[in-house]
Amino acid sequence: MSLSQADKNLLSETINQTLSQIPAFLRGTVNAQNITLFLKGIPSQFRNYTLLELIEAVEESCADGKIKG
């Protein structure tokens, strides 16, 4: 399943909007290239899960103190 052009455009707009909300002094450290590198780094065994499932698992791990940072 691939994204429609409309969804690709919406995704780009959403990412740009989110990036624009990052304080200017930090904005240089977070960019689209960093996002793609992070997403590409997700091990293949986790790619069967939805993004929401991964987010919830990370949030739970942070709350349990299993992820530090």
What features would you describe in this structure?
By secondary structure, the chain is mainly alpha-helical. It folds into two domains: 1-30; 42-69. The protein has four helices and no strands. The longest helix has 16 residues, at 5-20. The radius of gyration is 14 Å and the shape is globular. The N and C termini lie far apart (34 Å). The model has no long low-confidence stretch (mean pLDDT 88).
Q: H/E order of the elements?
A: HHHH
Summed over residues and divided by their number, the pLDDT gives a mean of 88
How many domains in all? 2
Helical residue percent?
55-70%
Number of strands: 0
SSE-based structural type: mainly alpha
Oligomer: single chain
- How far apart the termini lie comes to 34 Å
Strand content: under 5%
Shape: globular
Low-confidence stretches: none
Biggest β-sheet description:
none
The Rg value, from CA coordinates, equals 14 Å
Count of runs of 4 or more consecutive helical residues = 4
Question: What descriptors fit this protein?
Answer:
mainly alpha
Brief digest:
The chain folds into two domains: 30 residues; 28 residues.
